[in-house]
Amino acid sequence: MSTGSEPSRHAIALVLVAGYAGSGKSEAGKMMSQATGWPLLDKDTLTRPLTEALLSHLNGDPDDRQSSVYAERVRPLEYESLMKACWENLECGVPVVAVAPFLTEVVDEQWATRTRRHCSRLGAGLEVVWVDSDASSMRERLTSRNAARDTWKLAHWRRYLAAISLDRRPVGEFHLVDNRVTAMTPLAEQVESVALILSGRYDEALT
Predict the structure, then answer these.
(1) What is the pLDDT of residues 88-115, one digit of tens each?
(2) C-alpha distances in angstroms, 72 versus 64, 76, 101, 196?
(3) Rounded distance between C-alpha atoms, residue 132 and residue 98, angstroms
(4) What are the residues facing 131 on neighbouring strands?
(5) Are 97 and 38 in contact (CB under 8 A)?
(6) CA-CA distance, 86 to 62, in Å (whole number)?
(7) CA 83 to CA 115: how far, in whole Å?
(8) Which of 42, 67, 87, 158 is surrounded by the fewest CB atoms within 10 Å?
(9) Over 90: is that where the pLDDT of 37 sits?
(10) Residue of 71, 72, 81, 75 lying closest to 42 (CA atoms)
C-alpha cells in the first residue's frame, strides 16, 4: 500500500525502510534491495559491533537499547554513521535502501524536510517505507530471532509496549507495508509492489 502518488523528477532514490523492532524491516529491506538491485545499508550491520563495544566502554549494557546511555550517547552516532554512508552513495549517483527503526526521525517534520532537501541537492528523491505490525506479531518475531539486544524488551514486554505507539506513522508521503502475522498479502508481494513503483518512478527519471 502506498500513500504517495506524486511522480519523482529525481534520478535516484534514498529509500528508508523503517519500523519497530520485530516488525520485519530488515527482511523487507533485503527484499527491496533484491527487487530493485539497489545497495542495502542496514544500521545494525554497519554499527552493532561498535555500538556494543561503546556501550561496554561507557559502563552500560551492550545489549540494552532502551537505556539513557544508548539513547543519548550512542544512538546519535549510529544514525550519523548510517546517513553519512547514504550520502556518500548518493553523491556517487548510487541509490540506497537504508534500514533502521528511524522512529524519532520519520515523525519529525523538520528532520524529514532537511533530509528531503539534502537528497534533492544530490539529485535524489526520498522514499519512506513503513513496515507496520502489531504487538503479538512483533513479540513472536523477537522471540524467534533470539537476539541478545531484544532481551530487555521481551523481559519487560508490557513496559516496552507502554512506551511506544503502534499507531505511529511517518510524516508526509510514505509507503505502508502490513507485516502482521494476519496480513492478507505476504510481505514479499507487498514489497515487490512498492519496488515496482519505485523502479518505474526512478527509471523514468533517468531517461
Answers:
(1) 999 999 999 999 999 999 999 999 999 9
(2) 13, 7, 16, 38
(3) 17
(4) 177
(5) yes
(6) 25
(7) 10
(8) 158
(9) yes
(10) 81
Over range 79-89, report the average pLDDT. Answer: 98
The rounded distance, in Å, linking the Cα atoms of 91 and 179 is 32
Distance in angstroms (rounded) separating the CA atoms of residues 83 and 6: 25
* Exposure string over 23-37, b if 16+ CB within 10 A, otherwise e: bbbbbbbbbbbebbe
Residue 122 corresponds to which cell in the numbers above?
Answer: 544530490
Question: Bridge-partner residues for 17, per DSSP?
Answer: 99, 129
Residue 72: which region, alpha, beta or left (left: phi > 0; alpha: psi -120 to 50)? alpha
> Dmax over Cα atoms in the chain, in whole Å?
53
Cα dihedral 104, 172, 9, 207 in deg (nearest 10): 80
Q: Retrieve residue 35's grid coordinates.
A: 527487487
Query: HEC profile for 76-109?
Result: HHHHHHHHHHHHHHHHCCCCEEEECCCCCCCCCH
C-alpha cell, 135: 504487538
Chain segment 5-33, per-residue pLDDT in tens:
444 578 999 999 999 999 999 999 999 99
Q: Which residue has the cell 548518493?
A: 90
The answer to whether 87 touches 67, Cβ cutoff 8 Å, is no
Q: What percent of the chain has pLDDT over 90?
A: 84
> What was the pLDDT predicted at 59?
92
pTM strictly above 0.85? yes
Range name among 17-26, 45-54, 61-70 with the lowest pLDDT average: 61-70
